[in-house]
Structures
1.
Amino acid sequence: MELSFVDVFWIVFVVVIVAWYIHDKYVQREHQLLVNYPIIGRLRYLFEEVSEPFRQYFGDEKFYESKDKLDWVYKAARDKPNYASFSPSQPLAKPKFMIRHANIVLNDDEVENDFKVVFGERRRKPYISKSIIARSAMSDGSISPEGTRAFVQGSYLGGFPINSGEGGVTSNFFVTHENYDESYMKIVDSTHLNKSIKRFFKFFFNGSLAADVYRKLVFKNDPEAETYILDLKTKRFYRPNWDAPLEVFPKEVPSDMPDIVFQISSGLYGARDKTGKFDEDRYQKVMSFCQMTEIKIAQGAKQTGGKLSGAKVTPAIAYYRNVEAYKDVFSPNRFPYANTIEELFDFVGKLQELSGKPVGIKIVISDMENIEPYAKEIKRRVDAGIDAYPDYITLDAGSGGSATAPLEMMERVGLDVRDSVYLVDKILKDYGIRDKVRIVASGKILTPDDIIIVMSLGADFLQIARGFMMSAGCIRARYCSGTTGRQCPVGLATQDKSKRKKYFVFKHANYVANYHKNLLKNVKGLLAIMGLKNIKQLDQKKLLFVDKNSRVHDNLDEVFRRKLDLGKDKGEQNEFR
């Protein structure tokens, strides 16, 4: 009797199921659940596996206040109308800040387009930012080379600053700089045949694939091939030649580059020599292309120093940072020139003198004791006529941030950015030095209302990471760290070539620029209904606070006095939390 295909299929199926049942129940001893629930118990592991990447698609958003805010970011990046019908899908929970509107509102065209912020008025080369918003620190390394290029091009198109992150100013920050002088660049040219092959692939496929093929033809197996940028005009490759003498580097930042804030961390990446010590010469060369410096003392939940897993330390990243490829790069907890606040400020003064440009520090605070020592030292130096102190202080929220951080520190170390801004603004005013230092805020700032609230509380300037990440294609799968065996599925925050090579650089660069444009556009809309002509007119009196019992408070000093335990009325604090 011949068996049909269907019969064979069912016989094989039953044999496999029986064997699988026997294996789970009687053979394997790794999973207790499978002993009691053979086969079907594996569904638990399947659901657990898919729960994280699919988390953002189902249910209410618990981490970013509201999914409506996330939707706003994605629509703004694509330059789509940002209106909602009927009501928010997820109203903001109380307690919350409310924005006061005016009886006589303004039309949008009556609000000024002046969003300039001046840093370091006392320096030889002050920096005037054309925007109140910068892309916050995200290192080339944590972000893929393609992702960094998208951010750099988006920053240049949008006319807003970009923070280098602690990975330093890598070759990818020069992607828009095509009018370079060859004296400070290393150039690699190729043959006419290779260029013809590139044109062939571009004609039949796409520019990205053509560039990838062309790079392989030119560099073959050179591990540092990715440290070079392709000049689309000349079809040559170039990268900064940091070994060139300082005299040949530009005296002014090239006009075809975005405004870069160079961040220095405890690892001193991008400003260190081969032994890991601070290199004055290299720092000055880097600052030829940057507008100001930010010293990272802490960031978000990372009080331990930056962490880059070995999977992300490619030969290119190793070249940029002067470290060994494919080994974990964990920065020291303490900045090497910050054993005391006095030593830190002396180092700030050294950088100000070397660059002639503004220098600030990035910190996270938990209470008054974290900021008062800084204020006291600034006050002492101001009174003594000593100019070596930070031109600005960046305040990061005590959350996880857009980068890798120890889970046990997330949401456990550091205040919310709004509390931090209020407290630092108050302390600096109390010491009479508020006009000497700009306050920069960073942490879960996504939408125009966030900007209005934080700036009303005292911020002069903002750095945004999460919003720009989403505008650049991030779907919040939380596979960024490189430590889980999984990679960023869109190719934005991974060094996995199979993922990142498919990332749409130019498309996402426009999305990044759109997000910034729509932030400012809608900030103007909010200023209009508040009756304000300029962003500088914001102050605490423009806000209300609704506590968890729906009581409305118009005295924010009183709210924060109780909320932050700045006074004696401890019994009245709970309603504000």
Note: The chain has a mean pLDDT of 90.
2.
Amino acid sequence: MSSHDALPTAAPDAAAPDAAAPDAAAPGGSDRRRWIALAIVMTAAFMDLVDATIVNIAIPSIERDLGASFGAIQWITAGYALAFAAGLITGGRLGDIYGRKRLFLTGTAGFTLASALCGFAANQEMLVGSRLLQGAAAAMMVPQVLSIVHVTFPAHERGKVFGLFGAIIGLGAVSGPLLGALLTQWNIAGLEWRPIFLINLPVGIAALILGRRFITESKAPKALKLDMVGVLLVTVALLMLIYPLTRGRELGWPLWGHLMMAGSVLVFGALVAYEKHKTKKDGSPLVELSLFKVKSFAAGIAVQLTFGVVMGIFFLVWTLYMQIGLGWTPLKAGLTGVPFSIAVSTAAGLSVQQLVPRFGRKVLQAGALTMGAGILLYSFVAGRYGTDIHPWQMIPALVVMGLGMGLIVAPLTDAVLSEVPREHAGSASGLINTTGQMGNALGLGLVSVVFFGTVDEKRLAALPQETGKAFTDAFQNSLGWAAVVLAGIFLVMFALPAKPKQHLEGGEDDTSDTPGAPEGPVTKEPALAS
């Protein structure tokens, strides 16, 4: 690879520059290439986010076409999140070891293939299996997105880039249902729900072709080894925690499920103990426990986990409520989410560029309170109008919720990664994504408790006319739990730094990369406790 293709990967606290570390800030071709690379990885991230939510809107169509049970429906959604969460930390570390570009392209290829298998699934078992494969492939692809951004852009530009990433997160989460509605409603070539997966094929192929050309390879600055024991422990711990939650209600909450969940705590403890040993032994642990000494990272991880729970609960029960409970078409349900999407994107842009630099973590806390208020308003409206509710009556609550979500998702990533050493970018990115997805999978698992737990399926089979009221009650119950979790998020946010670092042009990376430059970042104000 020629020198002008290179991107910066050195860090003031790194022992040595990343492999293939170029000067990303240089004018000309390299600057253009890094923005093209950003567009490619952002598109892949958007594809993953859309795929995580696009399925929800098509669930009734899948249920009719494949005769899928409630248990299978949960696995079609939670199975993806489970495989994704279980593999993310490993995917991030593999990128550090073998190259982030290589893992990104490998994951993208696997994701594209799995999407084709989902689209051509002949039965519910094949669809569940393909979704698990899709989640595993996404676990190879997605951690590299934040890693590539982290090592490609200097510190003073990362705030802007992560703000864009936050907007993409919000847009992807809420545009998935609309896109799914359109593709399902159009019934292209009589394929019904299948195009929601097949649409990934051209996008994935384009990402492979362009990514191979424009993304520059980077690795950790020192030779690392894959921690296979750590991989086994983290995977087993996550499966022991999330599997019983997902299957518990369907199986009547057996004793073994409770024992598995309790045992997962012990396995997580064993993981921490082993990772400490591994760090002392050869410095190549799967999980960099030292990252949790960075206050902004540890607090951000906690917020990411609990926020994922809210997202996992809300998006699935929202779809079930509108389409099965209210009997709306996929298109009507999808269009109902448009005000939400607009509000998220608007608030995301404002939060990073204008609000967070002035008000710091208060913006994220305001987001948690605002989103909680929107959820409670939605619950009130749903109860007041019952099955006669119209989309326009939902708009105020959805706008309030969207504004709150936008204030959280955009600045959170920058807050979590801002003080992470670049040599641990892959591990940190894997942890961020894992906790978010683990929260999402927990939320999806909890749907069986907070939503289906209040629905008497035998009674509805005998009295289908009561479906609307039963699903409305279940939706209100789920929203109540989501509001409680958001209150917890608000409290956890007090552990975030009160004010973010304000990087100047020519800040952290520029000075540190210059021989003889003083160590440390140049900031407008000192960073608060880390």
Note: The CA atoms of residues 244 and 257 lie 5 Å apart.
